[in-house]
Design goal:
single chain; alpha+beta; 3-stranded antiparallel β-sheet; 3 strands; about 40% helix; about 15% strand
């Protein structure tokens, strides 16, 4: 199944970056690998730590040339592609990782 036209693009503003950070932090909250390498904190503390970690990852990646994209929920949006952020990707060109 493909995404509706206009629902995936670069973040348009700071609010969409915050949405991406929230989505990624929530998505990885109970990830087995993420929890294995992170501190042995409560779920609440991990949520705060994840938000800070993904803030740094998103902003550092953008600063170093990553292609950042967000997916928006189309349901209930006034215009196609204007709904809340529900997913995202951060990708580098081949050979561009690790960040210098």
């Amino acid at each position: 199944m493909s995404a509706p036209p206009g629902s995936i693009s670069a973040p348009r503003d700071a609010a969409e970056y915050r949405g991406l950070i929230s989505v990624l932090a929530e998505a990885f909250l109970d990830d087995p690998v993420w929890t294995a390498i992170g501190p042995r904190w409560s779920r609440r503390h991990r949520a705060l730590s994840n938000r800070a970690s993904f803030w740094a990852i998103c902003h550092g990646s953008r600063r170093h040339g990553a292609r950042v994209r967000v997916a928006r929920d189309r349901d209930g949006a006034s215009a196609p592609g204007s709904g809340p952020v529900v997913g995202g990707t951060i990708a580098f060109e081949p050979g561009a990782w690790p960040i210098p």
